[in-house]
# Entry
Amino acid sequence: MSAYAGIVLLDLVYLAVGAAVLAGMGVARTLRAQLLHAGLALVTGWALVGTAASMLLTAGLAASVWQILLVAATFVTTALLLARRIPSRPARLLGSAAGFQTWAAVAGAAVLVVYLEALFWLSRFAQPSAWDAWSFWLPKAKSIVYFGGLDTSGGGFTSFANSDYPPFAPAVESLAFRFAGEVRTDVLPVQHWILAVGFFGALAVLLARRVPQWLLWPSLALLALMPGFTRLVGSSLADEPLSMLVALAGVCAALWLLDDDARVVGLAGLFLVAATLLKNEGLLYALLIAMLLALVARGRRLIVPAALAAASVLAIVPWKLWLSANDIPVNAAYDPADLLRPRYLADRSDRLWTALADVPGYFVSWDAWLVALPLALVLAVAVVRVRPRLTAFVVGTVAIGLAGNLAVYWVSREPIGWYISTTADRTSATLAVFCAAVVPLLAAEALRPRRMSAG
# Structure
């Protein structure tokens, strides 16, 4: 079996797990529904299997092929058993309109397809080239294969920089190596391309619940054409999957605010757990989304954001216990606890002014994220009278996300100029992709007839 055939097999495992989960939730049980939800099924399965692989590794296992296949079979069996008890409630997707709207939808979809095809050929002959990828992300993934799991000896998992980062990203890269049959980094860009296609498919089917096709596809094309996004796909940097997971979780959370559909918030929880196990910042974004949902939710709905926060915290506990048991030091770049030290902050006020002057420009950079963030804010303000909770959620995510980014540079122990110049283009990705993902939803709500009730 060729290496690329192994990659296809791995993605079929992801697809089977995700399809079974969506069937179990009552979202997609017919053949037509499964085809429409294929992208969502792929990323759902990837998030679930990646989470399981992280837990297996933390438990001292190797996350080998047979273990992953056993876990996948367990997921599929459990989901299909649930399907016998949970009634089918397929989501109603908005159809196409006539006239220019049809042409707008076709044009947007065509741009997206052409972009994805070009990105495929770029990925087919590419290698990960980012410094962080080669300095610690890829070596960690290789060590999982070579050492049969997480190893703390020389050359093992903890030998590389940021040894306290959760294991999700190296875990899924190691699965690509295992299914490919050898440690070949040239197969990774194609695997990342497949996940990017799934990401767009997932956004399309989620947003199609409330966004008309003529608005949906041009918006997705705009997201795809963001130069910063193109640079991330296939980079093997954790910022790539983190931005996708947070964007999907954010869209699901926004849909829950509008429709009160427990199934989409269940998907949000799954994506946030995966994000938590991807990078230290993942837990912060998970808690941010949960906190904002709690602030704008009403009555008994408070249990939902509480459950999201609890799931993310519980997911990271095994990893924290593993770090403690193996005496692994935390990342020395910054300590969030320093935010509670007024004297320390005052002594570093010059760093805050530098961050305020330099960092926001990365979020609104035309050659990275186009107009995603300012457009999302403008549209959020435009719907404040009819969708105040949606406005609060989007504006709050942007404001707190940006403030958190600035706070890291403020308390960090790294030279401020160097730290911003080497990280801000990546750390801005999660918030920018989130904004691009919610733009079509905000635009659709702004154009919706005003007879709709506010929510």
Observations:
- The chain has a mean pLDDT of 92.
- Residues 3-328 form one domain.
- The radius of gyration is 21 Å.
